[in-house]
Amino acid sequence: MHLRVLALLFGAALLVAGGDPFEAPPELQAFTRLHTLNHPGISGKAGALVKAFFVPTAEGGLGITYDNSYTRTPQEVWRDRKANCLSLTALYVAACKSIGLEARYGESLRVSRWRRMGSTIRYERHVVAVIPVGTGQELVADFLPEIRRDSQLIMTLEPKRVRALFYSNRAVEMLAESRNDEALISAHLSIESDPKLGVGWNILGVVQRDQGLEAEAEKSFLQAMEADPRDGAPCGNMENLLKSQGRNAEAQVYRDRGLEVRKRDPFFNAFLAEEALVDSHWEEAEKRIRQAIRLLPQEPDFYLIQARISLAQGNRKEAIKALEKARKWAMPDMQPRFDAKLALLKGDKTN
């Protein structure tokens, strides 16, 4: 089975062809007014609205819980009370606009994750809402659990790009359920929303290859690379496709290109470190996690991986050092998690 490399933004496949997937629920404006009416200023209203999204329904809120299994429209979030970061951000932006608050989409460039799911490697990125509150000042409404809010670098996203990401998410989710015909439709909707976004082209190529349309898949991967030369995912897919056809010299070109692109991605290096750890390739694991830390030294999860690598080799002293660094860079509400791990490693019987 060939290995597929997909791009997914942090993530019943209802397609919203011909319409706006981010159309607001009819009840949203009244809910938003109710929960922001007594809060003065932009900051007060924006904060009250975030809180109202998570307050239990018995107390008048929406009681939304985080769920990355399926990318919902705002209307589906309202119905299900579940959402991932893209879905929840779309609902929040719609809510802000319903009461005249300016809100736009953004991507948090320092938050991403590579992970393996069966024969697929997913690249998950992160969407937030950005609300201007004055000259050069912004509020960031961020709905990803356990994120480091003090290390964000936000890039503004146009609405058409967010719609394209929504449809690309849907395509990935349908593909995982072997609903290839629907995945194909959603991939095309992603491209129609924003032809200059490489994600849609890459996923279209994956779906086409699964359907045996290898020539078409090759063209889609090339289009994805042209749209976004910094994305290593289509390079990996092209490499695998060419290898399966015996075109090894051409495949090597795309392998080298993909490695060159991804070596500067700290999260990809962390992913490779975990892969090597699982396979007991200690030297490779240590090399990769050191590179991840060099690229992004304030990410606590990288030091946690480093501690796991040290423990797997029986080096408790180095594991303790890594955990102490993880605790240093963790947000305050996450530090007790590392305190408990450190106490266990140090043999502190009082914890």
Based on secondary structure, the structural category is alpha/beta
The average pLDDT is 83
Overall radius of gyration = 22 Å
CATH topology of the largest domain: C8orf32 fold
* Annotation, overall tally of beta strands: 9
At the first level of CATH, the class of the largest domain is Alpha Beta
Task: Report the span from N to C terminus.
Answer: 47 Å
Count of distinct structural domains: 2
CATH architecture of the largest domain: Roll
Summarize the structure.
With about 350 residues, the protein is of the alpha/beta class. It has 15 helices and nine strands. Helix content is about 55%, strand content about 10%.
Can you characterise this structure?
This protein has 351 residues and is an alpha/beta fold. It has 2 domains: 4-176, C8orf32 fold; 266-346, Tetratricopeptide repeat domain (Serine Threonine Protein Phosphatase 5, Tetratricopeptide repeat). It contains 15 helices and 9 strands. It has helices spanning 28-36, 41-54, 74-80, 85-98, 159-176, 180-193, 198-210, 214-227, 233-244, 248-262, 266-278, 282-295, 300-312, 316-329, 335-346; strands spanning 4-9, 65-66, 82-83, 104-108, 113-117, 120-125, 127-134, 137-141, 154-157. It has a 4-stranded antiparallel β-sheet with strand order 8-7-4-9. The protein has a 3-stranded mixed β-sheet with strand order 1-6-5. α3 (74-80) links the parallel β2 (65-66) and β3. α12 runs antiparallel to α13. The longest helix is centred in the middle third of the chain and has 18 residues, at 159-176. Mean pLDDT is 83; it is low at 1-18 and 145-151.
